[in-house]
Amino acid sequence: MSPKKKKEKKNKTAMQSTETAMQSTETAMQSMDINAEKFSYTVVRTLKRQGFNLAWNVIEKGYNKSASGEEYEISYVTIKQAASFLNGYILETPCIQSERILNKRGFNIYLKKELYQVTDSIKARGVIYSLLRLSEEQKCKGVVTISSGSFALIICHYSLHNEIPVTVVMPTTTAEEKIELCRSYLLARVLVKGNNLLEAHRAALDIAMREDLYYLDGNDHPNMIIGQATLGIEIIEQQSEIDVVLLPTAIEGCGLTTAIAIAIKGCNSKITVIEVQGTNSDLFQEVKKQTDSPKELNIPTKEYVACPLRNIPRCVIDRFISVAPEWIYYASIQLHKSECYYDCYGAIALAAILSGQLDDLRGKRIVIPLYGRMDLSEEDFTIDRCIFRQYHLRLHLT
Question: What pLDDT, on a 0 to 100 scale, did the predictor assign at position 52?
Answer without folding.
Answer: 56
